[in-house]
Amino acid sequence: MPETPRRTHRLPGSRYGNRPTMKDVAARAGVGLKTVSRVVNGEPGVTPETERRVQEAIEALGFRRNDSARVLRKGRTSSVGLVLEDLADPFYGPLSRAVEEVARAHGALLINGSSAEDAEREQELVLALCARRVDGLVVIPAGDDHRYLEPELRAGVATVFVDRPAGRIDADVVVSDNYGGARDGVAHLIAHGHRRIGFIGDMPGIHTASERLRGYRAAMEDAGIPVEDSWMSLGVTDPGRVRRATEEMLSRPDPVTAVFTGNNRVTVTVIRVLSERSRPVALVGFDDIELADLLRPGLTVVAQDSAALGRTAAERLFRQLDGDPLAPERIELPTKLITRGSGELPPAD
Amino acid sequence: MPETPRRTHRLPGSRYGNRPTMKDVAARAGVGLKTVSRVVNGEPGVTPETERRVQEAIEALGFRRNDSARVLRKGRTSSVGLVLEDLADPFYGPLSRAVEEVARAHGALLINGSSAEDAEREQELVLALCARRVDGLVVIPAGDDHRYLEPELRAGVATVFVDRPAGRIDADVVVSDNYGGARDGVAHLIAHGHRRIGFIGDMPGIHTASERLRGYRAAMEDAGIPVEDSWMSLGVTDPGRVRRATEEMLSRPDPVTAVFTGNNRVTVTVIRVLSERSRPVALVGFDDIELADLLRPGLTVVAQDSAALGRTAAERLFRQLDGDPLAPERIELPTKLITRGSGELPPAD
DNA sequence: CTGAAAGCGCTTACAG
DNA sequence: CTGAAAGCGCTTACAG
Prior knowledge:
The structure is a homodimer of 349-residue chains. The first copy, chain A, has twelve helices and twelve strands. With 349 residues, chain A is α/β, with parallel strands linked by helices. Chain A has three domains: 1-63, 434 Repressor (Amino-terminal Domain), CATH 1.10.260; 77-175 and 307-332, Rossmann fold, CATH 3.40.50; 178-304 and 336-344, Rossmann fold (3-Layer(aba) Sandwich), CATH 3.40.50.2300. In chain A, α1 crosses α3 (48-61). Chain A is elongated. The N and C termini of chain A lie far apart (100 Å). Chains A and B meet through α4, α5, β2, α6 and α7 of A and α4, α5, β2, α6 and α7 of B. Chain A binds a DNA duplex (16 and 16 nucleotides) through α1, α2 and α4.
């Protein structure tokens, strides 16, 4: 019987091709498997001469350690998952980058996915990440019930929610002061003489949308202004819907003289609508926008620091991973009112 | 001797906590390991009654399959790596999203990272992704020598370069028509009467930057206009550098009457500089920008379709993975001139 | 300083 | 329809 080793499979579906393994390197260098492992991982206890032979074999074969195997044995994947709403939304760019930088500083890679504002897709993604055994999870939730995460949390998957809180479970959350920011923004319009102020926001089921609406109501109440139903419109951020809502508020017999917009996408559409009309309407938007300073008038906004949201969340995540047994906490980051002109226009009537 | 199973390790560093395995599920359901595997993977050949018992055990224990182990055996990770320059750059948002969508359609996750325009960091990231055995790689290269990828390519890692070509290796590449786009944009300025036209671009080592400069030169030559050295400035996209370059071109005795900018970041800074000056200067920018239509004048651009770049690259990647033995190809996507006002301003003198 | 054996949690290839 | 054994490519825990 020939004693060629019997390799169970080398199927066409395999993507490993014929990658060399530590065993192959060991054979070529004439050393034991463990010695190769030591060299690859820079562990001590290898003579320079042995190390040289192993290095030579590694290069000759083009060996690259298979981290899948390593992960299986070590129990840590050195990767974190980030689930957000839409990778293409500029709001999440700095946030993603900040999470990546913190992960990188801890030697971890980032696995990234969009929920498309769909609770089911969020869950699917989160569970796929858990199956990959990411060490931690940063989630901008689309859904409002995260009990599906309970077994994962018990199993030790570090988790931080960002931008919006978790639903029906106790978990760390990092959010902006949506309520206070919106209240300040609307109060700013009131201070400039407005009383009929519209609010155009995102879907009411989204936490940030309802918090900002609450801020709007609070500012109006503080000023003793009764709010009319027709001044508020919540719904999808689709340009068509936002356009109709804006035009409706501006076309009533008693039109609003100012608008507060609930997020960056709404703001962009409202600016377009306002730019087509002759009568000036004041505008304050939640979220800053690139080039906001170059518009005429400049756009006044309530800015949140999306990079700080990501950084804070990721740092918290790694503190959990470093073993600090932390009680779930809610961290709120301040917003900042940036005045550039559009929010300082006086009422047109 | 007690016959408690000897578990080699359950170290504090382990993040798996005490996650149940298929073995645990099998024991609880009173079936073999393979039967659990069948149920988890929806394979046929399990009686409904057995399946029920297994499902019960799965839920009672909170079992979730460990894909790390699966990957090790199967040889495919169902993940693709995307290395780009900066996750926070809005240009890459739609590109990332497009790659994600294609990956998702193929059941794969996306691992994402920024090279920060640093060749070493690019290599480090790419190799980390290869060690994780991603099935494929979409790379927006920072460096210009990718021979370090040769062993990986031989081992069957599908690879597509986007936005810029690979250096010193033969690989698929998907790029925009940078040369033609820039040439058309500059020709547009010439058609509107300009002769002294400045070019402000990114670092000359970056392929897109030099291609666009080449397009600029070609358009000028076609029109018989000798280009002066002082009309061209290439360098980092840092606002300070771009501002100085712009101001210099505008302050000479014979100032340029129009500027062509080499990418979105440069454009933004140049708009700021021009908006501070009284004399109008025409501007055409490479890359479209959100709100470009709302500026006064509207911004004329040479737009590339960044989502199409990502989609095309990812589709090509999965065709490679599906086993088509494809010869490396260069795919060029067209750009589009969008006129909005700034590029149609006549020369000021 | 070095290496053989066991094991991480799955899937593969069989055999019953 | 069901399951025991072997193996994926590493690291762990030892022993020499």
